[in-house]
Amino acid sequence: MGPIGRVLATSTACLVLALAVGCSDAAPVATRATPPATAPVSEGPKWVPLSFPGGSNFRSAVYDQARDCVWVITREFGPNLDQIFVTLTRINVADRSIVAQPLNLNGDNYDMGLIALDAQDVLWMAWGNVLTRFDPGPGATKQWTLPPYSGLARLYSTDGRMDAMTISSDGEIWLAAGMVSAVFGFNPRNESWDRPINLPFVPIDFRSVLAAPAPGIVTINGIALEGGAIDPNLSSRFAVIRTAERSVKTLSLPVARYVSIGNGQIVYWDGVASFDRYDVAKATSTVIATAPQYWGTTASMALDRDGDVWLPNTTEGFPGVAKLNPSTGAVSQFPFPIVIRYYQRPSPTPCFMHGCLPVECPPTVVFRCVPTPVSMNPEVQGMTPDAHGDVWMVTSASSVSNPDDHSIFAPVVELQPSA
Hints:
This protein has 419 residues and is mainly beta. The chain has one domain: Lipocalin, CATH 2.40.128. It has one helix spanning 351-354, and strands at residues 46-50, 59-64, 69-77, 84-92, 98-106, 114-117, 123-127, 130-135, 140-145, 162-167, 173-177, 182-187, 192-198, 201-202, 210-214, 217-226, 229-230, 236-242, 247-251, 257-262, 265-269, 274-279, 284-290, 302-303, 309-315, 318-324, 331-335, 339-341, 372-374, 380-385, 391-395, 412-416. Strands 14, 15, 16, 17, 18 and 19 form a 6-stranded antiparallel sheet that branches.
């Protein structure tokens, strides 16, 4: 699984997201825009980038309401690219100050981190096959390794790593690993893996989701097995698991991405054209809206404080994010800022070989020298709404101060829908 593609490297990195910040040679420091007294109540959406040191294309985030901060875990590389480690970063929402803390987590080229917050405001993180508990108060860390499992004997290099996690109302930590036909329950009170539950299908890397939509119920999506092998047609499967009885009810719902909205319901994208609501108790599925074109390889959907669902999407060919109201079916779309793509310096070779330059081209090739407005895809890997009505997105972009990978997007981008 190769690294996610990078976007154009230019000195205009700050400029393209300058809706909320200025541009200088240093990494931009974002601040919440305060409208003047004479300004209208709403000025429209604003995109606020935040950067921190390190280069990575695997991240995850969660909002912590008790501390009013966003926690981000990032895979980073050592100076010689021979060491891979994981950093936990805290972004304080009030002033956007950033504090980073290295973690003792192994992360190789195939791992994508997971992070969740329990009812006691303790962080739980999964990376590779290691579950980590981190209490931000005392800063105490403890780890446990996922137990061995033989449900699917053939595992490839990207398989067997935890790629879905949720915390149920009883405090149990639930995890699933790619291509392993089971979910695993971890009891934090007695620190034991006390509830492995077999599945008749397998979760898949980056696309499966675990959720706890009602007490005693956990759900997960994946793909079918046929005679012990993966179905070549990648038939969708969705399971409703009653954790006390360890019973699994498998459905053929086309659940490509989904999020729990509470009250025993989920909202899912069918992978084609619609958003649907599934009621676990009633076992009914209802189409609620036509979906905008989806993009992205990770299962990024999130529920905000108002009960709206957020996910990445494409609007007339331009990537961005969308907000769905599950009650009305209304969809609001927020395309990423437009970028003017051109080269920094004049080149002695003709324009048609190097794209558009910021100078006039020779008349014979002037038709090849028109700046092209585009909207770049930073690959949203996670979304976490805060308590103030804003949405935080972690992306595949490197630090804007990284000279080897000067991206037009920052590792974290905040959307203020009505700043």
